[in-house]
Amino acid sequence: MSDLFTQAVFIAMVASGVRLAVPLLIASLGEMFGQRSGVLNLGVDGIMLLGAFSGYYAVLRSGSVWYGLAFGTIIGLLLGIVSAVIAVTLKAEQGISGIGVYLFGLGMSDLLFQKLVGTPVPISSFPKVQLPLLSEIPLLGGMLFRHSLVVYLAFVAVPVSMWVLNRTTFGLNIRAVGQNPESADSLGVSVARVRYATVIIGGTLAGTAGAALAIDLGIFQQNLTNAAGFIAIALVYFGAWRPLGVMAGALLYGLVNAVVLQMKTLGIIPLAWSDIAAMVPAIITILALVVVAQRFRPPAALTKPFLRGT
Amino acid sequence: MTVAPTGKGGNMRKPRFAWLAMLAALALVAAACGDDDGGGDGTNGDDPFRIAIVAPSASNDLAFSQSIVDAVNLIAQERGNVQVQVTDGMFVVEDAAAAIRGYAEDGVDLVLAHGSQYGGSLQEIAPDFPDTAFAWGTAADTFDLPNVFSYEAASDEGGYVMGVMAAALSESGIIGVVGPIEVGDAKLYVDGFGVGVLAEDPGATVNVNYIGSFSDVALASEAAQSHLAAGADVLTGTAQMVVGAIGVANQNGLLWFGTQANQTSLAPDIVVASQVYHWEVVLRDIIANIEGGTVGGEIYEINLANGGLVIEFNDGFDLSDDVRAKADAAIDGIKSGSISTGQ
């Protein structure tokens, strides 16, 4: 066991957990806004996939990782608008329409990849940024402060989300619309406008998350996200629809994955247990979800289209 | 558009538009996921020989799926009157089963179910189409069905050769392996690789990490990071998700050994060699059997001796003559039977 806890391995393991958490965190925060206003978007993974391909392709063509991130984000925004039209204006059943968006993203990202790129071609990744002073802190410096700028921005988005939700009129409207849209409507709050905004925020961040994933890996492949978008949705429930809870869930999922990986590499988990060990992060997440579900209630209007006068 | 419908009738109409929108989206997806026609066109007037491939990942994944697509396209070029159809990305077994059945109903001459995970489905489907030839792999089991061939790769052989070179090139004596799930040709390759490493350097350490997925690129990337943290300076891996691990190896200057397809293009500076699958070696025999009236019942293997497995060296990598000689000796020894890969 001692090999696991050498300082270098321990630092690398936690840093790995942080990296694995980042796409989930970004996508989960976006989805959280939608759910707090009453809209469940199951299409997150599809939007992530199109964001991932768009970001990858933009880097491939331009050579700039930041153009790639921006392009993936814009594609996410556009798909957020589409999702909002389907869920808010057309009042589609949210679960089913979300699956439609997912399938569209899954198929279209692969089709575009096949037609525009073909065989996987590596691209540049985000440069690492060592934060002055902070990166020199023993242990913590290596774990937390030697990542790419996207990692830091993802964690900065947590307090920003808290501020928006809890300290602004827009945040108050989001919570009101998600909890009791009829009351909000009677007070002059446009339920549709608020939901449009939150679903578009969710789509935009899902696109960002996908682009961040592809550019960080430096490659695109069919179904690159491997259902990360669905895990992101689960993490919103895990985090009880609160930014800090979502962050805790994403970090837990990433860190458990990283610990399992490192233990497998070092032979602490025997080969015969590899497949079972691979399920551990999902099992822990499900158990945590069960615990959270006992203590917190979802927004009362979640998944319910708003129909004035009913 | 009206944001808030005011009457019940209006509410009734809205979901129809939603369903239309969804149907449009699904139609686009169907177009994206649809079958690709490749290969020959049957222009000489005879009915073409029709081959359909159902594969788990993208047909140009530089790994497992590409190996069979490349082989079938080569057969199509050789024969000149072959129609090739590909349904790739079938990571969901139920979807693959539907595609396999669809091709059989469509009268395809040979349906290739390219994935060991498709065996159960094939066992159910094949008896319904006794005149259609099915082949699946990697596996060595025809289920005693007269219309099922199976094929496998002795990937342990190339794994052994790669292991010998990896041990000879490693300075730290620690070598990392990123695997998917411990089954099929992936397990054979990883096991053979380990035997090869220890044959060259009994004191070396081979850290094997089966990540539990054939498709999780991010996890494969982090598995490579975990090998790096454990001191590895040479990596290998198998299945389509290893593109993530190759990226980490490239960024950190670790050497890489590939398998299934030639992976040099992914990292020309660090890929030393790749074991490449040439399924055409067994496909020629399978097609000859079908044309002779036998539509199943045989088990085939590609290996170094029959040319189905080929070690392709990266010309851009400066491999020393000494290490190259060790690799050539291992290849010759396996072909002649003087070296055992432990399988």
Keywords:
heterodimer; A: 310 residues; mainly alpha; two-stranded antiparallel sheet; 2 strands; globular; B: 343 residues; alpha/beta; 7-stranded mixed β-sheet; 10 helices; 13 strands; 42% helix
Layout: helices, strands, pairs:
The complex is a heterodimer of chains A (310) and B (343).
Chain A: H1 7-36, H2 44-62, H3 65-89, H4 94-116, E1 128-130, H5 140-144, E2 146-148, H6 149-167, H7 169-179, H8 181-186, H9 191-217, H10 228-238, H11 243-265, H12 274-278, H13 280-295
Antiparallel strand pairs in A: 1-2
Chain B: H1 8-33, E1 36-39, E2 49-54, H2 64-79, E3 82-87, H3 93-105, E4 110-114, H4 119-125, E5 133-137, E6 148-153, H5 155-169, E7 174-179, H6 184-200, E8 205-210, H7 217-229, E9 234-237, H8 243-252, E10 255-260, E11 271-277, H9 280-291, E12 299-302, E13 309-313, H10 321-336
Parallel strand pairs in B: 2-3, 2-4, 4-5, 5-6, 6-12, 7-8, 7-9, 9-10, 10-11
Antiparallel strand pairs in B: 1-3, 11-13
Quick rundown:
By secondary structure, chain A is mainly α. Chain A has helices at 7-36, 44-62, 65-89, 94-116, 140-144, 149-167, 169-179, 181-186, 191-217, 228-238, 243-265, 274-278, 280-295; strands at residues 128-130, 146-148. The model of chain A has no long low-confidence stretch (mean pLDDT 92).
Spatial shape of chain B: globular
Count helical runs of chain A: 13
In terms of quaternary structure, the protein is heterodimer
Structural class of chain A: mainly alpha
Along the chain, the helix and strand elements of chain B come as HEEHEHEHEEHEHEHEHEEHEEH
Assign a percent range to the helix content of chain B: 40-55%
Low-confidence regions of chain B: 1-21, 23-44
Q: Using only CA atoms, what is the Rg of chain B?
A: 23 Å
The arrangement of helices and strands of chain A along the chain is HHHHEHEHHHHHHHH
Beta strands of chain A, count: 2
Major beta-sheet overview of chain A: 2 strands, antiparallel
Task: Compute the number of strand runs of chain B.
Answer: 13
Mean pLDDT of chain B: 88
Largest sheet of chain B, in brief, is: 7 strands, mixed
List unreliable stretches of 5+ residues of chain A. none
Strand order of the largest sheet of chain A: 1-2
Structural class of chain B: alpha/beta
Helices of chain B, by number, come to 10
Distance between the termini of chain A: 62 Å
Largest interface: A-B, 68 and 65 residues
